[in-house]
Specification:
It is a single chain. The protein has one domain (about 40-130). About 35% of the residues lie in helices and about 25% in strands. It is built from two helices and eight strands; from the N terminus they run H-H-E-E-E-E-E-E-E-E. Keywords: Competence, Membrane, Transmembrane, Transmembrane helix. Its main location: other.
């Protein structure tokens, strides 16, 4: 009588485990919140904002920052919002030669969450609220 082994070889098992691990890794990365993306954008915005404010003060001229639907345009940079976030309409902020910015709020939303950039101190300082 002939003995027949039915089963998978070690190589076949490793290939299947590798595929499953890849699918799980990809699924977990897509389901994690985008906080690192938002934090990275916030850091880039802060750096560019400070640069524009200092430029207005050093050159003693008015500078502009324009919040568009998908990005914010500054004198030397165009920052795209974090993935999925949008600004309704267009909003321009004037930075006076003194560094003054009129109090206002800019809201970016992605449908379920928001990022609010609140310019309430008049001196060009701002705070960020996130949901």
């Amino acid at each position: 009588m002939k003995h027949i082994d039915k089963g998978y070889t070690l190589i076949e098992s490793l290939i299947v485990l590798g595929i499953i691990a890849g699918v799980i890794t990809f699924g977990v990365q897509n389901s994690l919140p985008q906080t690192s993306n938002i934090n990275h954008w916030e850091t880039a915005f802060h750096s560019n904002w400070q640069h524009v404010r200092l430029t207005a003060q050093q050159k003693q001229q008015k500078c502009y920052v324009c919040f568009k639907e998908k990005s914010v345009a500054m004198a030397h940079a165009n920052l795209i919002y974090p993935k999925g976030y949008r600004h309704k309409g267009q909003q321009q902020l004037d930075i006076l030669p003194t560094g003054y910015v009129a109090p206002t709020t800019v809201t970016l939303t992605n449908g379920s969450a928001y990022i609010k950039i609140i310019f309430s101190f008049g001196g060009g300082e701002y705070r960020v609220e996130k949901s």
